[in-house]
Amino acid sequence: MKKIISLALALIMMLGCIATFASCKQPDEDNGLNFGKELLSVGSQLDALNGLVKGDADIAVIDSVMAGYYMNSVDTFKDYQVLSGVVLAEEQYGIAAKKGNAALIGKINEAMIAMVDGNYKTVAETYGLTSELLVKADTTNPNAEATDESWNKVVEAKKLIIGYTLFAPIAYTDGDGEGAELIGFDIDLAKAVVAYLNEKYNAEVAVEFIVIEWNEKEALLENGSIDLVWNGMTITDERLAAMEISVPYLANKQVAVVKKADASKYGANKEEFFKNTADAVIIAEKGSAGEELVKPVE
């Protein structure tokens, strides 16, 4: 009987130790995240912001270019803010084509460099992004001598298909119903680039914009469904290896958006932010640079 009681007590103590250990573990020790207790991946950055408003998450990780627009221009997000002092990453945007289509990217580079003091700057002024511009008059075009047939094929097809997601002020609709117009920095810049190239090379290329799932962009380029991803895409080493990418044309940051009422509890800098988000649910666009900051690609 004493032996049975001793075994029972030992078992109880063992279970207590396990429970204590589990309760003391930090969330980032077993969830694979750099910060936060849970990551929600959604279809777009706008979905991430809307998920934040619905209460699905505590923090949205999105592009600063987008955050600045929505926090200052859309009433839906008037009670939300970017955490000042918390810059999760500094980034640069690039325009992507299928690997091997260097000539097409070379023409895009050529046009942007030529338009530095013209439509490149004018379009940026329209959307309040002049301080984020990266292309200069002396920017080198690394694809200037590319000889593949990608640009010629676009000219022959008389069509350039660009994949995008709704992402103001980069690409968004102005108006409702049949009168809605697709506008934005990247949309207007793409049109201006193609107009420049048409005039210079006596071409008749029309631009076609197609909404895509961001996580499918590489596959859509590879199978030829689109010619370019032109949608505030962050340049990374992995993407440079997998795609042809333009010169950097716009600067960006990854930032954290929270309720204004909750801002103080997350700290005033990145180090404090990481410490204070152990119990927070994070939301980010699937396949985005923001999602990778929360949970690195394995």
CATH top-level class of the domain at 91-253: Alpha Beta
Shape: globular
Assigned CATH architecture of the domain at 91-253: 3-Layer(aba) Sandwich
- Multimerization status: single chain
Question: Which regions contain 5 or more consecutive residues with pLDDT less than 50?
Answer: 1-28
Summing up helix and strand content along with how strands pair, one would put the structural category as alpha/beta
SSE order, as H and E?
HEHEHEHHHEEEHEHEHEEHEH
User: Measured on Cα atoms, how large is the radius of gyration?
Assistant: 24 Å
The largest sheet, given as strand count, sense and whether it forms a barrel, is: 9 strands, mixed
CATH topology of the domain at 91-253: D-Maltodextrin-Binding Protein, domain 2
Mean pLDDT: 90
How many strand elements?
11
Count up the helices. 11
Percent strand equals 15-25%
Query: What proportion of the residues is helical, as a percent range?
Result: 25-40%
Kindly describe this structure.
It is a single chain. By secondary structure, this protein is α/β, with parallel strands linked by helices. It has a domain at 91-253: D-Maltodextrin-Binding Protein, domain 2, CATH 3.40.190. Helices cover 38% and strands 24% of the residues. It has 11 helices and 11 strands. Strands 1, 2, 3, 4, 7, 8, 9, 10 and 11 form a 9-stranded mixed beta sheet that branches. Strands 5-6 form a two-stranded antiparallel ribbon. A hairpin with a 6-residue loop joins β5 (172-174) and β6. The longest helix has 23 residues, at 2-24. The chain is globular, with a radius of gyration of 24 Å. The N and C termini lie far apart (53 Å).
